[in-house]
Amino acid sequence: MKRRDFLAAGALSAASLACRRKPEFPFQGELVGPDLALGHWLRGGAFPDPERFEPISVLVVGGGVAGLSAGWRLAGGGVDDFRVLELEVEPGGTSRSGRNHVGAFPWAAHYLPVPDRGNHAVLHLLDECGMLEGFDAKGEPVFAEEATVRAPEERIWAYGQWWEGLYLRAGASTEDERQYHAFFREVDHWAAFRDAKGRPAFSIPRSRCSDAPEATALDGLSFAAWLDQRGLTSPRLRWLLDYACRDDYGARLETTSAWAGLFYFAARKQGPGEDSRPLLTWPEGNGFLVNHLRRALGERLRCGVMATAIREEKDGILVTAWDHLNQRRVGWKAKHVIFAGPQHVARHVIEGFAAARPASTRIRNAPWMVANLTLRGRPKEPTFPLAWDNVLRDSEALGYVVATHQSLKDHGPTVLTWYRPFSGTDCDGERARLRALDWPACARLVMEDLRPAHPDLEGLVARLDVMRWGHAMVRPEPGLLWNPDVLALARPFGNIHFAHTELSGLALFEEAQDHGLRAAEEALAASGRRGQSWR
Amino acid sequence: MPEPPEQTPSTLKAPLLFISVLLIASCGLIYELVAGTLSSYLLGDSVMQFSTVIGVYLSAMGLGSYLSKFLQRGLARRFVDLELAVALVGGFSAPILFQAFAHTHAFRVVLYGVVAVVGTLVGLEIPILMRILKDQVRFKDLIAGVLTLDYMGALFASILFPLLFMPKLGLVRTSLLFGLLNAAVGLWSTRLLQSQLGPTRMIRLRCLAVMAILALGLAFAGKFTLALEEEVFADEIVYAKDSPYQRIVLTRGRGSFQLFLNGNLQFSSADEYRYHEALVHPAFAVKPDAKRVLICGGGDGLAVREVLKHPSVQEIVLVDLDPAMTDMARFQPMVRQLNGASLEDPRVKVVNADAMVWLQETSGPPFDLALVDFPDPNTYALGKLYTSRFYRLLQRRLTDDAMIAVQSTSPLMARQSFWCIAATMEAAGLKVKPYHLAVPSFGVWGFALASKRDFAIPTQVLPGLRHLSDEATAAMFAFPKDMDRVPTEVNRLDNQVLVHLYTREWRRWS
Fold this sequence. Notes:
The structure holds 2 protein chains of 2 kinds. Chain A is an alpha/beta fold. Chain A has a domain at 36-95 and 285-361 and 477-526: FAD/NAD(P)-binding domain. Helices cover 30% and strands 22% of the residues of chain A. In chain A, helix 3 packs across helix 10 (287-297). The model of chain A has no long low-confidence stretch (mean pLDDT 92). Chain B folds into 2 domains: 9-224, Growth Hormone, Chain: A; 264-507, Vaccinia Virus protein VP39 (Rossmann fold). Chain B contains 19 helices and 11 strands. In chain B, helix 11 (302-307) links the parallel strand 5 (292-297) and strand 6. The longest helix of chain B has 54 residues, at 139-192. The model of chain B is unreliable at 1-10 (pLDDT under 50). The interface between A and B is medium-sized, with 16 and 22 residues.
């Protein structure tokens, strides 16, 4: 070692000693999946074929809600000869959940509006899960009380205290109130709308929505522009609507189409003038439904397996994959493939896809950060008590949901699931920003966000774990949802069928399920098993 | 050591010193009010407490005035020292008294001691100030000015204390704040009396140090305060504990004792037998051979005492959230005597858990009889224990002919809440027969008797009870017109209508 090196090493170790001060937070945690490196490995290209291609009827690529639902439908249609491949070790995509000594908690999607009686697929699934108790005198479904969100549902932090509800009534002027009602009259108008074929303008899933021009024209302008046209300028109202866009779409009023903005409210109405449909939730959020689907698939679900190349040949589709858990190359020769992944992955993986479907580049995904805070006890609550959904008005984040709320535990340890969409206009820039955040930076973001409402939080946190979702949800930007080329992305590509929320432009459980069932039913029909549709 | 000149009239600022009279008079009265209020809170009987506190305080002021003649020289310096002493003792009077109550058995000694010390010090203030001013102001003007401002200050304090300081700051912060004001008067006096003080650097430093101590006290005021401060009890507190779940207080007076949870009366030893006989025995009258009994809530052990009167009972599982509550029922001598050490009976198993979570997450052999005795549904966390979901979970743990009795608030004072509970139990599939009786410390009180199967109103109860006879039992099931059934919604987890109904109805009575 030269003298200069020695001095440099000494200086370094002195510096590292100096840096070894008290840790910034009195708790630990980590950054957890999704596996960024593994996913991005795909971009490198050039994967040699495996030794053999195992013949199979249907191969589902992607084990999020769309892929799991496709598998569920295939099994229900009498097909046993299929596999669902999931790149992560846990299935469910953005409906994943986790569990620790406190209990289960969501890692992203965490509720479902109560389905109406026409939403057969969701009713079917909830019935299987034991959550559908029957139908009332009017024929509307009745759900298990333990699955409907327990009151108080939501509260908002503003002016230094918590208030019940999400719309801040405290301090609202008469003009604010007038505009609030004016907006919901517009929503009622659209909730009542039926086209010539009797279809509603807005319904869940969106495949039930009218394509009449008077409704789809709303997709041509931003939600912000639509509100401006109606003179709806109330800051409180616009805060509420912007919150809805951030919450469901990872976008802002300016980057959400008016169609999508109205969809959020009108599709959830039980009818004009009536309340929004109540929500169903579980301690683990939509992970409850994922876990049911996962059990239904059993061994046919293969996690930790990443499809690296999909190539259609005359006598079948060759799928090459990397089995990450066993560190080996695997292959299938499938009659049908259901590609239940995002379009940007399809461009890398499916031979000839990128050139044939240029519209696939139109889709943009918002990145999200989700943190799970495991608490030893509850923060002090001198004002409105802890609700299921707890929102801070003056924050870029969306607040947090409480995992123990639905499991009825009002005392002792709990898990708070904190959400923050990176909703800036430039998705790629936002993604780079999120990727650059290490654990301390993430923890700082969370704790600084919650400190005004919970000054005593730091001492209660036992762990803080963070999930960085690079491509969390598709953004329904103006002009996307009813663009014919984008709609055509849902059509089969040879014998490859597609299922994903991106094809709806709306990142909802019901959309993923609907596309999964459609794709599965396409494959079933092509193999001569056309039966009663589950949709 | 040469004394500074006693007076140099031209440099004293008499009008400003009159303002200090106003301030110190306000402070003096505040300490008196703090002591009077605090002792009323903790000991009850406010007439007695205020009378004795005022008496001790005024006589101590007399003592102070008398003692003032023994102070001869250096009056200005004495005055500043006096202000600092009042600031410390008066300012910390409320924290000292709260801590004395919580941690010693000699609260009254400390109370009158503090009152006497503060009174004496305050009694010294005015005579000394008058002597400082005597050569500068004519006697008749001096007397008129000082006494006018003294009484005016008292007026300010007595009006602002109940309207502003008590509601906004509470006792501890109010007393510390006025301590700070006293010390500020001391600091200010070092300027006003500079000509008589000589070098003032050390004196000012002392003033600043006292102010810093008081400010520190203000910053940590929350630590000194007992949550008791929020409540007013009519009687003397004999036991107080803040558990993680609730605030438990026992008070004693008028020949009985009472249990309060979060300020709400749970029982009075004078008439609790009426309540607990009504909770327990009608259910047993329908199901006299019950062997396994579940009690949800009821950590005071009083319902267990009644259950143990039935020889058929082999096992009692009592599920109460708060170990502090069941510990008190076991070890607090008054409560233990009242419940007959029921929780020590070998047939009793105590589980400290949220009853609803316990029902949801555990399983075991079914019960023949369940008694549901929760506090009234005034929060969401309690409201969930009255939902259709709760009654469904409960039924899963019962035999098909098991009987349930549920305490369900007052059908007179909270008529809709009472019938909401009955309607909710029916929605959960139970056959329900509500009943009521008079419990003087509560008023008219209601219960719901229920079972999965239809059953007849009981006509025979266990003989030898204090209140219930066969006739009285049957009579409880008749509802006069002003308490009769009203239509209500069902209390579900996702609407919690009962919490809203209950708070609205009881607001009219408080």
